[in-house]
């Protein structure tokens, strides 16, 4: 199997929504909310705060969409709502608010500002595989790899998500994720109920930058390792730019002495 991922395109939305609706864990949480999901996703494509990819099986003679992954950078106020008990399913609520003109997603400008100062709050919106690939190790590995790749260049402040399945939730917690307490909305290291019961009702698994810094070596903690982008030239490129600058200065200022490079 040759799994690859790419940005979602407008003509992908219908099939992606069908995959979400048919997913045994994710679909029921939406209820009738999947009816409007395609319209909402189409309205957000191209926004910096809307991160949407599709997974394809490149070994088929006809390339087939095998899954979808969607996340969003949301406002601080919306994140506080999510973390305040009693919890609610975030994904259908986000769909409803965007549809009503009360989008919790940041604008492009707000994404840039938060990424430069303070960090971004990330909520996973969808992570679903087609029924034929639910147990595929390659597909599940590609989904996690894509999630890392899509957010590596951002300064994350907090990450929250619903569990996609019992097995994936157990893996997320083993990898450093923490459950939010339904009593006080704080992250806890252990729970006094079976995880299966917790997943059956609104819940959140996540991590903050502060907690990640004291939980060295965890896989989820690596999401918060951030290096500001740097831009520079290699020596040869720098010399070329200097030469071009000298040429331009000579062309626009005839009385200036010519560049030693042009003699």
Give a brief rundown of this model:
The chain is of the alpha+beta class and 263 residues long.
Describe the protein in words:
It is a single chain. By secondary structure, this protein is α+β, with helices and mostly antiparallel strands. It has two domains: 3-231, 3-Layer(aba) Sandwich (Aminopeptidase), CATH 3.40.630.30; 233-263. It contains eleven helices and eight strands. It has helices at residues 13-22, 26-30, 37-44, 76-83, 90-99, 108-116, 137-151, 166-174, 195-199, 209-213, 235-252, and strands spanning 3-7, 50-57, 64-74, 120-129, 156-161, 178-180, 187-188, 205-208. An eight-stranded mixed beta sheet has the order 1-2-3-4-5-8-6-7, with helices on both faces. The longest helix has 18 residues, at 235-252. The chain is globular. The N and C termini lie far apart (60 Å). Mean pLDDT is 87; it is low at 253-263.
Topology overview:
Blueprint: E1 3-7, H1 13-22, H2 26-30, H3 37-44, E2 50-57, E3 64-74, H4 76-83, H5 90-99, H6 108-116, E4 120-129, H7 137-151, E5 156-161, H8 166-174, E6 178-180, E7 187-188, H9 195-199, E8 205-208, H10 209-213, H11 235-252
Helix pairs in contact: 1-3, 3-5
Count of spatially separate domains = 2
Strand order of the largest sheet: 1-2-3-4-5-8-6-7
CATH class of the largest domain: Alpha Beta
Main β sheet profile:
8 strands, mixed
Give me the count of strands: 8
Question: Could you please say which CATH topology of the largest domain applies here?
Answer: Aminopeptidase
- Fourth CATH level, the homologous superfamily of the largest domain: Gcn5-related N-acetyltransferase (GNAT)
Overall form: globular
What is the helix tally?
A: 11
Name the average pLDDT: 87
| Pattern of helices and strands | EHHHEEHHHEHEHEEHEHH
Class of secondary structure makeup: alpha+beta
Helix content: 25-40%
The fraction of residues in strands falls at 15-25%
State the CATH architecture of the largest domain. Answer: 3-Layer(aba) Sandwich
**Rg, alpha carbons:** 23 Å
pLDDT < 50 runs, ≥5 residues: 253-263
The N- and C-terminal alpha carbons lie at a distance of: 60 Å
């Amino acid at each position: 199997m040759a799994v690859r991922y790419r940005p979602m395109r407008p003509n992908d939305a219908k099939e992606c929504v069908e995959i979400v609706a048919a997913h045994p864990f994710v679909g029921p949480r939406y209820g009738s909310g999947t009816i409007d999901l395609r319209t909402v996703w189409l309205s957000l494509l191209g926004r910096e705060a809307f991160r949407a990819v599709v997974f394809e099986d490149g070994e088929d003679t006809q390339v087939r969409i095998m899954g979808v992954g969607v996340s969003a950078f949301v406002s601080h106020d919306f994140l506080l709502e999510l973390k305040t008990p009693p919890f609610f399913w975030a994904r259908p609520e986000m769909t409803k608010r965007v549809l009503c003109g009360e989008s919790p997603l940041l604008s492009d400008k707000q994404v840039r500002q938060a990424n430069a100062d303070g960090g971004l709050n990330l909520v996973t919106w969808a992570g679903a595989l087609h029924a034929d690939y639910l147990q595929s190790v390659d597909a599940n590995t590609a989904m996690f790899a894509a999630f890392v790749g899509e957010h590596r260049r951002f300064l994350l402040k907090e990450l929250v998500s619903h569990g996609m399945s019992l097995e994936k939730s157990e893996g997320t917690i083993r990898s450093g994720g923490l459950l939010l307490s339904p009593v006080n909305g704080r992250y806890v290291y252990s729970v006094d109920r079976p995880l299966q019961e917790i997943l059956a009702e609104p819940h959140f698994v996540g991590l903050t930058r502060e907690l990640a810094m004291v939980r060295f070596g965890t896989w989820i903690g690596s999401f918060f390792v951030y290096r500001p982008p740097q831009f520079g030239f290699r020596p040869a490129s720098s010399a070329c730019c200097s030469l071009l600058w000298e040429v331009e200065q000579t062309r626009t200022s005839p009385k200036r002495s010519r560049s030693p490079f042009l003699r």
